[in-house]
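Following up on my earlier thread - several people asked me to post the actual chain instead of describing it. Fair enough. Here it is, all 127 residues.
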Amino acid sequence: QVQLVESGGGLVQAGNSLRLSCAASGSGVTFSSYAMGWFRQAPGKEREFVAAMSRSGSMASYADSVKGRFTISRDNAKKTVYLQMNSLRPEDTAVYYCAADVRLGGTSRVINSYDHWGQGTQVTVSS
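Reply from S.P.:
Thanks for posting it. Predicted structure:
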């Protein structure tokens, strides 16, 4: 069973950057076996897809709303996935969650594709 812990959230002004990290742990966990995703949930809204990366890191996909501003990456040796967020906007304010699944061969934008979730980290962007 993999455990996921997000970090790096905070309060920033619009136009600035943040980098989120999601560290995986667990007995016998082979991080490179998991496809990873980032999702977010703003107050009063449903959780939505942000970015995803395949097991090896060779494939990545992004929501249209963050394409060109956010970059997902992973370091399988460190068992960590990152989300670099640049040019942040107030509408990016949300709790950001990372997710993992061992079944995915590529990437997925679908919440139900992921079996494992972190607790989330708050990102607040002020105007």
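The radius of gyration is 14 Å. That should answer part of your original question.
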